[in-house]
Write a structure and sequence with these properties.
The complex is a heterodimer of chains A (about 325) and B (about 500).
Chain A: H1 2-29, H2 34-39, H3 45-55, H4 61-73, H5 87-122, H6 127-141, H7 144-158, H8 174-208, H9 211-218, H10 223-252, H11 255-260, H12 266-275, H13 279-307, H14 309-315
Helix pairs in contact in A: 1-13, 5-6, 5-8, 5-10, 6-8, 7-8, 8-10, 9-10, 10-13, 12-13, 13-14
Chain B: H1 9-26, E1 38-43, H2 58-64, E2 73-75, E3 81-83, E4 86-91, E5 97-102, H3 116-127, E6 142-149, E7 152-157, H4 164-167, E8 194-200, E9 204-209, E10 224-229, H5 233-241, E11 247-248, E12 266-280, H6 291-299, H7 303-311, E13 316-317, H8 340-349, E14 357-363, H9 366-380, E15 385-391, H10 395-403, E16 409-410, E17 412-414, H11 435-446, H12 450-467, E18 470-483, E19 486-487, E20 504-505
Parallel strand pairs in B: 1-10, 14-15, 14-16
Antiparallel strand pairs in B: 2-3, 4-5, 5-7, 6-7, 8-9, 9-10, 11-18, 12-17, 12-18, 13-18, 19-20
The chains are: A mainly alpha (about 325), B alpha+beta (about 500).
């Protein structure tokens, strides 16, 4: 177990290093000059040159990469070209919105999907299954931002229960902050729940007629207990894999929903820094996304060992 | 004529949602609130930094100009130059010496006193070698600055610069303090009626009334103001209807503007911006090096149809690179009116009896895409095939079109006020070279008399309308939506801004 952790940690750092070099290379190849974007259509060549040297853009790509790497190892990720504040602080501010939002969405998604998936499997090919399948088809087909718009129209514009957009900050109180995150979390959760329902359903279906479930029934357990105690745990590996994918998607890919609800999240920071060619922010945010993917995979792998004794045995 | 299917699926979806929003708003009931002492203004674009003297985006000035920062001169709602931190000035007869008398008793928000040495510092910072001022060329003609006493500033020019007083009013010419200038990007300090309080990046900028403002008659009427940034038109609409923002002075989506009509709380105020939507052509590249081709393309365009198709009928047709806000505006939409038959004949005369084909590099913004689609249909009527290539704005457009000049035709809304001189710049992406035009613009700078300048600008407009270095289409409307009780916001935008000192609530 410990050697596994060690191996994974080393590979995490090596992967991040390789990914960071790749990201720098790709960003360096992007067309567009941050200085020209900041100084607009009337800038003269000498002011552009002055700004490029101020931002360090007059140096070659490898030099810029190595100097970024040097400071990053000391905890300094650099300073945004556009906002003029440290990138680390900028990302931390956005994470304070994005992480709680992703967690809320994941919890809602699990709370909706697992019972629905189990019910669908249990009532395989009967009306309940068909109804649940219909929900998951619709949920997959309808984009999250559109659900967001409907939620705004209903709960903010018409009923006035929740704010339409924006984020007051955690300083405004837990209640106020959660209120603004509630609708976007639902909008994000529904499509995720739809996917997760299908995965849960087919995973449980695969196990429901296995010998060990039949044995559970044979020793007198009711159908519900047999499924929840025996079939579902055995079906959790694909569900966890899906959850890991969904979490990384929710952290990195919530930009459309963030736009509709005007939330200052990480997705919008990535989008904005790309369109402004705030390369230093872009590099760090993309690297952060890569790190999230790698770390989530790691956590999911560990979780397999916890939920599936067969894998635990194989590892030992 | 057939217009291609503009309102694609997503657009229709949005329109129907907007309709639902109106219905919904009807049931929302009245909003009761105590007398408000602050205002929340919505903006589509978040500024990058808050120092208008070191970066170009208009959003910076829309937050800070006249609220936090002031200039030696200023521009009023009518677009006229007025004194501000300079209370008066004398211009020598040769137009080469400007002597400003500065106002006494003015101090920055951090307590620094404003005097001639500070003014000199601010101008030197904008014109010096290390300057990153986006309009550095405005200070080009200044040869030296003298400060005979604390209240007198003398600018010695190398050549007459008739627009100097106007340029000094721009956001990029703001007066900045010697102690605070370096940090203005994140914590702006000016002399204006509002002080900077806080910037929650990605969300909002907060300002508070400056109790020590130098001009008690023009002090801020509100205690505070908040600028909130939201790019999505649906989010903007929802925020207005839910009362999360009090005003959207430049609402982003004309197709949603009707949804506010009949709203008992919100007023819709449509004015002019300085955004000139023009389809620039590469005047040195074939076939656009032939004036007749450019004129023919202009005659193939029905401007009213463009405004209708691209911007919901809101916006004003123009015949030159000038807006109705600007002094000396002449309506030149009649120079080459819509006439496909004449256009075809002129193309044939220019050697293209069977039409021609080229590519437009159109940015991703809605106005550019939709206008290109309407133009494509109109050109096909005269046998011209226009391919639409979408180009990422600003990054790729700036490097491919503006810098490299690698394009046939492009389309973009020019935001800078009074920028007709771009046709005299070399290099500039139009590659338009006309000595007669340059001479007229030089004459503008040789006089400081507004009526003489207006007449010369009229001449310049006419040259462009006849030569057609770019297809002149329309001026973007300023789509203001705000609470009916909110008074004092500007209807037009002679310079991109949100001037808040006079804004107040009327019960």
């Amino acid at each position: 177990m410990i050697s596994l952790l060690l191996r994974r940690t080393v590979s995490l750092f090596v992967t991040l290093l390789v990914v960071s070099a790749l990201i720098f290379l790709v960003m360096g190849l992007l067309p567009g000059d941050p200085a020209s974007i900041m100084l607009g259509t009337s800038a003269s060549p000498d002011t552009l040159a002055a700004l490029r040297s101020e931002l360090g853009l007059d140096q070659s790509l490898p030099v810029r990469y190595l100097s970024w790497l040097g400071s990053a190892l000391q905890g300094d990720l650099g300073r945004s070209y556009t906002y003029s504040v440290p990138v680390a602080g900028l990302i931390a501010d956005r994470l304070a919105v994005t992480l709680p939002l992703a967690l809320m969405a994941i919890l809602m998604s699990v709370a909706i999907a697992v019972p629905l998936g189990v019910q669908a499997a249990r009532h395989h090919n009967r009306p309940i299954d068909v109804a649940i399948s219909l929900f998951s088809y619709v949920g997959i087909a309808v984009p999250a931002f559109w659900i967001g718009l409907l939620l705004i129209l209903t709960f903010a514009t018409t009923l006035g229960w929740l704010p339409a957009s924006g984020f007051p900050g955690w300083g405004a109180g837990l209640g106020a902050a959660l209120k603004t995150l509630a609708l976007p979390a639902v909008a994000l959760a529904i499509p995720q729940a739809a996917v997760l329902t299908r995965v849960t359903r087919s995973a449980v279906l695969e196990n429901i007629n296995e010998d060990f479930v039949r044995t559970a029934r044979a020793k007198g357990l009711g159908e519900t207990t047999a499924i929840w105690r025996h079939a579902l745990p055995a079906a959790l590996v694909p569900v966890l894999t899906m959850l890991g994918l969904q979490f990384t998607f929710l952290v990195a890919g919530a930009v459309l929903v963030e736009n509709v609800f005007n939330l200052p999240g990480l997705g919008r920071l990535a989008f904005q820094s790309l369109s402004q060619r705030d390369i230093i922010v872009m590099q760090n945010v993309v690297l952060f996304f890569a790190a999230i993917v790698i770390i989530m995979n790691f956590i999911v792998d560990l979780a397999y060992l916890v939920v599936d004794p067969r894998l635990r045995a194989a590892e030992q | 004529m057939r217009i291609p299917s503009l309102p694609h699926a997503a657009f229709l979806l949005r329109a129907s949602l907007a309709a639902a929003a109106v219905t919904a708003a009807g049931f929302a009931g009245p909003v009761f609130a105590a007398a408000k002492t602050s205002v929340t203004i919505g903006m589509s674009v978040e500024p990058i930094g808050l120092d208008p003297t070191i970066a170009a985006p208009v959003a910076i000035g829309q937050v800070t100009w006249q609220n936090i920062f002031e200039g030696l001169t200023t521009i009023d709602r009518q677009g006229k130059v007025q004194p501000q931190l300079a209370e008066s000035w004398d211009i020598s007869d040769d137009g080469l010496t400007y002597t400003f008398r500065l106002r006494q008793g003015v101090s920055f928000h951090d307590g620094e006193t404003f005097d001639s040495s500070v003014a000199r510092f601010a101008i030197d910072r904008a014109r010096g070698d290390a300057s990153v001022n986006p309009q550095k060329r405005y200070f080009q003609s200044i040869e030296s600055i003298e400060t005979p006493d604390a209240q007198t500033l003398v600018l010695k020019l190398g050549k007459p610069t008739g627009s100097l007083l106007y340029w000094l009013a721009w956001p990029s010419s703001s007066m900045v303090g010697t102690r605070s200038a370096d940090n203005n990007k994140t914590t702006p300090v000016g002399t204006g009626p509002f002080k900077f309080v806080n910037w929650a990046k990605g969300e909002k900028v907060e300002l508070a009334r400056n109790p020590d403002y130098w001009n008690s008659q023009a002090a801020a009427k509100l205690e505070g103001a908040v600028f909130r940034f939201m790019s999505d038109p649906q989010a903007q609409s929802a925020a207005l209807q839910a009362g999360d923002v009090d005003a959207f002075p430049e609402f982003a989506a004309p197709e949603l503007i009707q949804s506010f009509e009949g709203d008992e709380r919100l007023a819709t105020v449509i004015g002019h911006t300085e955004l000139k939507v023009v389809a620039g052509m590469n005047n040195t590249r074939k076939p656009f090096d032939d004036k007749r081709v450019r004129q023919a393309l202009m005659m193939a365009i029905d401007r009213n149809m463009i405004v209708e198709g691209a911007w919901s009928g809101l916006g004003t047709s123009i015949g030159s690179h000038y807006t109705p806000n600007d002094p000396g505006y002449v309506d030149l939409t009649g120079t080459y009116t819509y006439d496909p038959e004449k256009a075809k004949a002129l193309l044939a005369e220019a050697g293209y009896p069977d039409g021609l084909s080229f590519t437009i590099k159109a940015p991703q913004m809605a106005y550019a895409q939709r206008t290109s689609q309407v133009m494509q249909a109109m050109f096909s009527e005269i046998g011209v095939t226009m391919n639409i290539e979408t180009t990422e704005f600003p990054a790729k457009w700036v490097s491919d079109v503006l810098k490299a000049g690698d394009y046939d035709m492009t389309i973009v809304a020019h935001a800078e006020p009074m920028d007709i001189d771009i046709y005299a710049r070399d290099p500039y992406y139009f590659n338009y070279k006309n000595p007669a035009f340059n001479t007229v613009l030089e004459k503008v700078q040789q006089t400081a008399d507004p009526s003489e300048q207006a007449a010369l600008y009229g001449e310049a407009q006419k040259i462009l309308a006849d030569d057609v270095p770019a297809l002149y289409l329309f001026v973007m409307p300023k789509l203001g939506v705000w609470d009916k009780k909110l008074k004092g916001l500007w209807e037009n935008e002679p310079i991109p801004s949100n001037v808040l000192a006079e804004v107040h609530w009327e019960e």
